[in-house]
Design a protein that fits this description.
The protein is mainly beta and about 220 residues long. It contains two helices and 13 strands, in the order αβαββββββββββββ. The strands form two sheets. Strands 1, 2, 3, 4, 5, 6, 7, 8, 9, 12 and 13 form an eleven-stranded mixed beta sheet that branches. A two-stranded antiparallel ribbon has the order 10-11. The radius of gyration is 17 Å and the shape is globular. The N and C termini lie far apart (about 40 Å). The N terminus is likely disordered.
Length: about 220
């Protein structure tokens, strides 16, 4: 099975095993020639997420977007090494390594998603933020990330080097290959502060509640919400 087919199968299976068993997803694809309609879609999507109405999938034309979280408290973390056919601007090849990572449950404070786009030669940044005194909460959260930094980070019950095919979060396999690298925290907990990560895709297979949602379009390459 080709890499792209494996990735598609993994994401389809993940959504199919969401809490209510109904595969749902809203794809967020932002094209340079359709910025206006895409923003409207994001607004509707954001409202629906805050109401707990549907699962969500963020994917920006196989380009990186950025996740910032002030504080994350989670349980049931798993991660496996995989590969995606994505267009990495820093590489001549179309394939880059990613980590399929998932959290069974999480509370996030200061969540911010930043997407850099260009239209007619003008650079824009779309930010989706959830600031406020109350943390956001979610379950069955899946990410394809290329790098992540946090300071400090506390892992409890972590097992490194588990065969990737053995790791599942809430009974959903992460699609790892036998003998591949795996981080197993599915019976443990994780606490991260000042998280900065780059991702190619993020999916909410369960639900995500954002007490305070803000969506903005700004000129230039901004770094945060």
């Amino acid at each position: 099975m080709k890499v792209r087919e494996r990735a598609s199968f993994w994401h389809s299976a993940m959504l199919a095993e969401a809490e209510d068993g109904v595969p749902r997803g809203t794809r967020w694809g932002i094209g340079a020639g359709a910025l206006g309609p895409s923003i409207a879609t994001v607004v509707v999507l954001g409202f629906a997420i805050t109401q707990g109405a549907l699962a969500a999938s963020f994917n920006v034309s196989d380009q990186k977007f950025f996740l910032n979280v002030k504080e994350l408290q989670g349980t049931g973390l798993g991660a496996v090494l995989a590969a995606e056919n994505v267009k990495d601007p820093n590489s001549k090849k179309d394939q880059t390594g990613v980590l399929h990572a998932a959290l069974a449950e999480a509370q996030l404070s200061g969540l911010c998603i930043v997407v850099h786009q260009s239209m007619l030669g003008v650079k824009y940044s779309i930010t989706v933020g959830a600031n406020g005194s109350s943390p956001s909460s979610g379950n069955n959260l899946f990410f394809d990330i290329t790098d992540l930094r946090a300071s400090p980070a506390t892992l409890k019950g972590a097992v490194l080097g588990v065969s990737a095919d053995e790791i599942a979060v809430n009974d959903t396999s992460l699609g790892g290959q036998p003998g591949g690298f795996g981080l197993d925290l599915t019976r443990g907990s994780v606490s991260l502060r000042d998280v900065v990560a780059s991702a190619y895709q993020s999916q909410v297979a369960g639900s995500l509640t954002l007490p305070n949602l803000g969506i903005n379009v700004k000129l230039g390459d901004v770094k945060g919400c």
